[in-house]
Each structure stands twice: as structure tokens, then as C-alpha cells.
Amino acid sequence: ALLDQVDDVVVQVRRLVQRAEALTVEKTGVARLLSERRPTDIVYALLLGSVVVMITWMLVAPPLSAMYADRGVRVKVAEGLAAIRPLQRQVEESWHRFHAIPYSLDDAAWFVKRSGSVIDGVNFNPINGRFRLALGSTIAELADKTIFLAPAVDPWQRLFWVCVPVGISPKHLPLECRRQ
Predict the structure, then answer these.
(1) Is the pTM of this model over 0.70?
(2) What is the pLDDT of residues 87-144, one digit of tens each?
């Protein structure tokens, strides 16, 4: 009903312009005839403005809402990765001192509790130094997903971490996991 009224107003304006053009040859005459008409009714102006605002809101709101939800998931994943950093530092210190991966990390269970509800479990592989982060089911987008954090060594024998997400959309990953 509202859009029908807007369409009627548009049709009326078109008819006015066509009549003015038919009555005069010069553009100044068309402008003069149109300016002699009374201005647009305030009700129609408000109606048209309301329709424009509503259509804009309907087009903009869903993508913004989805982006906000994706950001929330990304923040939770980043918090979980931040909770694992002390474990990564233990591996880095062992590599720096002994050029070897430590056999075990005793604090892994404590870091899982600290990370909140995003990470359900942390497994450490002493053979290759890789962490396996089992993500929880509290966030639907991350349910039963996994992130591997694998140590790698550059040509100067410096250790760095490679993030390998398994089954996780890049839009749900923090920047350090999307770059690789």
C-alpha cells in the first residue's frame, strides 16, 4: 500500500512535467510553469522520505548484522589462540636453548580452562611440536572444528608458528590465521 502511494506520486510528477513540456517550447517556460505549481505536499514528502529510509535499512542491516556476528566469532577464536601463547613460548624457549621440542607441557589443561568455552581440548605432539586445538560446540560456526598450530623453522633457525584451520571459514579466523 505504501509503495503504491509512492508510485502514484511519481506518476503524477511525470504527468506534470510532460504537460509543462507540451505547453511550452523553451526550457525556461517549462521551469516557470512548474514553479507556479504549489509545492509538494508535506505528507507525500515525509512518506517518500520514510520509504527511502526503510528500503535503505532493509538493504544495509542484514549484511552489517552478519559482519558483526562474524567478528564475534573471530574475537572468540583470537582469545582461544591467545590463551595458548604461553604454551607456544615454552616450545620456543626449548627450541632456543636446546634446538629440540620439549617432551611434554604440563600446563596444557590449565590453559584450556583459561581460554573459556571456545577450546574444548589441547593436544600437544612432542614429536613435531604441533598443537591441536579442538574447538567447542558453544559457537555453531566452530562446532567440531580444529586448528593446528605447527612450529616451523626459517633458514636462520628461528622458530615461527603456522596456523592451519581445518573446516573453518576464513571470515571466522583472526588475521594471524588468515595470512598463511
Answers:
(1) no
(2) 899 899 988 888 888 887 766 556 555 556 688 888 899 899 999 999 887 888 888 8
Q: What is the DSSP string of the chain?
A: -HHHHHHHHHHHHHHHHHHHHHH-SSHHHHHHHHHHSPPPPHHHHHHHHHHHHHHHHHHHHHHHHHHHHHHHHHHHHHHHHHHHHHHHHHHHHHHHHHSS--S--TTHHHHHHHTTTSEEEEEE-TTT--EEEEEPSSSGGGTT-EEEEEEEE-TTS-EEEEEEEES--GGGS-HHHH--
> What's the rounded Cα separation, in Å, for the pair 108 and 121?
9
